[in-house]
Specification:
Blueprint (H helix, E strand, L loop, with lengths): L1 E8 L2 E9 L21 E6 L20
Antiparallel strand pairs: 1-2, 1-3
Length: 67
């Protein structure tokens, strides 16, 4: 599965990062910790390499931290 993170920069949505996750190999987490400060909307997409996954729901939790 491929995750892509987008953020609006100067009014234009830009691709910020791409990460590939392999089920059963990688830990069950997608870490967007590289973002130190977010002041705009962040959009994360997930795309599976398995055609049978089309339309399947993905469970998720989100944790936000403010300092």
């Amino acid at each position: 599965m491929t995750f892509r993170t987008y953020m609006v920069v100067n009014g234009v949505e830009e691709l910020m990062d791409t990460a590939t996750y392999t089920q059963g190999v990688d830990p069950n987490i997608f870490w967007a910790g590289w973002v130190f400060a977010i002041h705009e909307v962040v959009r994360i997409t997930a795309q599976s390499a398995v055609a049978g996954d089309n339309g399947r729901a993905i469970g998720y939790d989100i944790m936000l931290e403010s300092r």
